[in-house]
Design brief:
single chain; about 160 residues; mainly alpha; 4 helices; about 60% helix; about 10% strand
């Protein structure tokens, strides 16, 4: 009985975090539309970092432009895999980093999915001009950072665990 209650607590916590992260992503995109659309680029650090409005109908660097169905299908697959892993993984304190990473990946996927379903494109606005990095958004930060952290966890923190079977 205690395990089920513990599992519910983790699940509710992750769902609350998921909702919070998606709301933050969507709010930043609303702000980008209000403050950046049809405006000049805002340079925060000259030659390094800028804010600019971009309607991204593809992936990074504009690849797969106008292939909305592929992104919808891909995001759906990632969300199903995330739910599968979340359900399968032990809800123990030791695995909080893994569960948080899954939650952040799901939040990023949902944030960009909302844009694609509602608008037909994703709103991007962060740009590192120093390295000519693709323009990105908060949901992208969730996915990339948590994906890197997830790989780190699996390769180093949980590498000898039997729970991955």
């Amino acid at each position: 009985m205690e395990n089920k209650q513990n599992d519910r607590r983790y699940i509710l916590g992750c769902l609350a975090a998921l909702l919070f992260l998606v709301v933050i992503d969507q709010c930043t995109k609303v702000l980008a539309v209000q403050k950046l659309k049809d405006q000049d680029v805002i340079v925060w650090i000259p030659g390094v970092f800028e804010l600019l409005y971009l309607e991204n109908r593809g992936a990074a660097f504009g690849i797969f432009e106008n292939m909305r169905w592929m992104f919808l299908f891909g995001t759906g697959l990632i969300l199903v895999l995330t739910i599968f892993l979340f359900r399968r993984f032990p809800k123990k304190r030791k695995y909080i980093p893994f569960l948080v990473s899954l939650t952040m990946i799901a939040a990023g996927g949902i944030g960009n999915l909302i844009d694609r379903l509602r608008l037909g494109y994703v709103i991007d606005f962060f740009y590192f001009s120093l390295i000519d990095f693709p323009v990105f958004n908060v949901a992208d930060i969730y996915v990339v950072c948590s994906g890197i952290f997830l790989v780190f966890c699996v390769c180093f923190k949980y590498k000898d665990e039997n729970d991955f079977r």
